[in-house]
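Thread: quick sanity check before group meeting

JM: Hey all, I'm pulling together slides for Thursday and realized we never actually wrote out the predicted structure for the chain we discussed last week. Dropping the sequence here so it's in one place. If anyone has concerns about the input, flag it before I start.
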Amino acid sequence: MIFTFEFTKTAKETLAALKHSPSLEKRYRAVVKALNTLSQNPRHPSLQTHKFTSLEGPNGEEMFEAYAEQDTPAAYRIFFIYGPKKRQITIAAITPHP
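JM (edit): ok, ran it. Output follows.
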């Protein structure tokens, strides 16, 4: 099942900043690869997707975290909720792991 994406303003801005920063090219490619995998299979083992209990969506939806990078200092993560439409994922944030 293929999912389409909706991006929050924050997620769009982060993705654009990664894309236009030569020093973050590797991270940008990792995030794009993770997004492609996420659209095909949100539960793909490489994403290590899991519920993120510290945050929730704007209407109380469950928030999930997927890994764009692993074993890297400040590895990037993708935070998302399912919906609002069927087969749609809303990307809430793309951020480095603290």
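AS: nice. Strands lie at 4-7, 50-56, 62-67, 76-82, 88-96. The two ends are 32 Å apart (CA to CA).
JM: adding both to the slides.
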